[in-house]
Amino acid sequence: MGAGHAHRLYRHGHSPVHALPPHTKLAAVLALVVVVVSTPREAMWAFAVYAGLLALVAYAARVPAVFLLERLLIEVPFVAFAVLLPFVAEGERVGVLGLSLSVNGLWGAWNVLAKGTLGVAASVLLASTTELRELLLGLQRLRLPPLLVQIASFMVRYGDVVTDEMRRMRIARESRGFEARGVRHWGVLAKSAGALFIRSYERGERVHLAMVSRGYSGSMPVIDEVTASRTQWSYALALPCAAFVVCLLGWTL
Fold first, then answer.
1. Could you read off the pLDDT of 145-156 as tens digits, one per residue?
2. What is the Cα–Cα distance from 61 to 235, expressed in whole angstroms?
3. Residue 77, domain extent
4. Are residues 132 and 58 in the same domain?
5. What is each CA distance from 42 to 247, 251, 252, in whole angstroms?
6. How many structural domains comprise the chain?
7. Residue of 61, 55, 67 whose CA lies nearest to 13
8. 24 burial level (CB within 10 Å; 0-12, 13-18, 19+)
9. Which tens digit of pLDDT belongs to each residue from 92-112?
10. What are 42-45's contacts with CB under 8 Å, separation 24+?
11. Are both 134 and 205 inside the same structural domain?
12. Is 1 domain-assigned?
């Protein structure tokens, strides 16, 4: 996959969670998300247990609570959507602090917040303990279509390149006295976005031609082959298995 790329979500460490093979962690997170989504929204205690399980994983991975909470801010748009649900949903209504709120909307808001927050937290923990290169190797080990893995790999490789190009274009605009202050300046920003797209497309063509000239035939060579023992699989799947038991209790109690 090429050289590794550090990212802001990753937190370097030597914890047992960091040491697990990436494909075991990917499978565990996917299984956990499926279990959480399958839990009935009325079983509020179950979501508290899920949060406790994730807190144990964060403790084992030595990921500080502040670090985790800061990364959870990415779900703010979903929180805003959930807050609006009680006001716009139809059905039976109930008075809360002088406001008329939909009962279905309240349950829907709770459902979105609880399951969305747990899913984002699990994803943040995965990214905090696994480097991007390892994630790509894990996806390949899980037999994700090679084309998708290659696309993700190129996104990781050239995301910083495109970002740096955007920075240079912004500096060029500001050096000429341009400041985006209103709708009338949207035309300039749109032209900049178009120019960035053309430059990125042309760069992609040059990279592709360079790869073809070096023997690229549609598949990337696998440099490292990641494997996992039964013990490592058991450690990784302990979290979703415990969550599955909680889910079953949530449906039966």
1. 888 888 888 887
2. 13
3. 16-139+226-252
4. yes
5. 12, 9, 12
6. 2
7. 61
8. buried
9. 888 777 777 888 888 888 999
10. 42/107, 43/249, 43/250, 43/251, 43/253, 44/110, 44/114, 45/250
11. no
12. no
